[in-house]
Structures are given as C-alpha cells and as structure tokens.
Amino acid sequence: GILLYQLLGGDLRRPMASGWEREIGDDLLAHDIARATDGDPEQRFASVTELIEQLRQLEARRARQERETAEAARMKAAQDAIARLRARRPWIVATMCVLAVGLLSVGWLYWQADQARRDAERQANRAEAINRFLNWEVLANTGATTTGGEVNPTMHGMLQRASQSVAASFADDPESEGWIRLAIGEGFVALGDYEAADREHAQAIALLDRTLGEDADKTLDAIYTMAANLLEQGRVDEAIRRLDMADERLHRLPKRQLAAQRSLPLRSHSYRGFAYIVQLRCEESLEQLRMAEAI
Predict the structure, then answer these.
(1) Which of 66, 111, 168, 231 has its CA 20 to 30 A from that of 4?
(2) What whole-number distance in Å separates Cα of residue 261 and Cα of residue 242?
C-alpha cells in the first residue's frame, strides 16, 4: 500500500503523512491504499493478489461508481422535487379546485345555452308546424276551396276534420298533437258536443302523459281542463275523480316546485269548491273557495 502511494506520487522516498489522500486525486485508488495500509488486519486486503485484482477492475469500478453517483443525484433531485411539491400542494390543490369549478361552470352555462337554443328551435318548428296544420290541413280542406265543396263549412265540421288529420300531421310530435286535441275538445265543448269533447280531452291527456310525464304542468293543466268541462256538463262525480287524479300528481311535485305553482292549485281549489256546492257540501266548498281566494 505504501509502495503504491509512492508510485502514484512519483517519489519512492516520500513517507505517508496525514492528509496523504489529497495527493492521490482518485477516490478509488485512495480507498485501495487505505485498505492496504490499514493498521487493523481485519480491514486490510488479505493478500497482494487481492489488491492487484482490485486495481485490474479499476475502470469497471469507476464506471459503476459513476452510475451510482448519477443514480444518487437523480434520487436526490426527485426527493427535492417531491419536497417542493409538498410545500406547494395546498396552493396547487386550491388552484386545481378553482379550475375544476370554473370548467364545470363554463360547461354548465354552455349546456344551458345549448338547451335554450334547442328549445327555441323546437318551439319555432312546432309553431310553424301548427300554423301549417291550421292553414292547410284544416281551413284549406274544409271543402270551401274545392269545386262543389261546402261553401260555408260549419265549425263542427272543421273540428271533425282537424280531429281526423291531426294524428297524421303530428306523427313525430305527439306533444303538439296533445295540445291541439285539447283545443279541439274545447271547441266541441263550446258547440255542446260533449261526447266528442270528452274523447279529444282523453286523447290529449294520454298523449301528454306519454310525452311530458304525469306530473308535468301541461299534463296537469289538461286534466284540470277536462274536470272543468265535466263540471259544466253536470257530471260532478266524474269531475271530482279527475280532480283527485290531478291533485294527487300535483302534490308529488318537489316542495320548491309546488310552492312556485299558483295557477294549478288555484284551479284545483276553485273547481273543487264549485263541485262541492253542487253536492251541497257547503262547509267543504267554502273552505276550498277560501283557499282559492288566498292564492
């Protein structure tokens, strides 16, 4: 070990003094010299052969040391990055939350705008279809515009023709068919044809049930309309059954939605109050009419 030190230092007479490691300039060679000259036999190389083998593998040991050093540097860099991330984590989390909320808000607003646009387009197309139906399927087909046709077609005849053609005209839009049938039924009521009116109202309610749902405002409106017409005919028991059906559905609505309703509860209490008068249930009638007045 001392000889190796002297050979590396270029002076075979140089003694090994404290701090000799600085003169070597190679950590691996300094480690080999230290092991070869260690005062503890357990720490020294067992033989010169073992030292020679270490020196022969010096390049391989250097390559391995460089890899280990590079790996240690990468590990330290990763640990430093993790430490910095942890230090910034609250801000990062808060920023990500704000961004997420912002993206959700933008998405929701876009969805609402898109839905509003689609609804507007749907309503415009529906209005155009209804207008076309009234102009060309009803008025133009009354017979008044054809040779030999009825010069002064009756309102009843026009309503009948509308009833016959509305299903085909709105095969792809049963909601509009429901509303038109409700209007046709009202026309028959005005003409005193209650049988035809009941038929149209029943079909209208079935269509709106299927397209909008049992609890939809328009569906409930149609049921209350039919109940009112039944009352007008004096069919009180049937009217009350319709009112019971509508009221049961009305009270299934969420509390906030129910609290915002005014017209449907008003119609319910008013019609029920009139029905109870006919049945001579005066106290109950007065209670219903008071509730209607409060609305």
Answers:
(1) 66
(2) 19
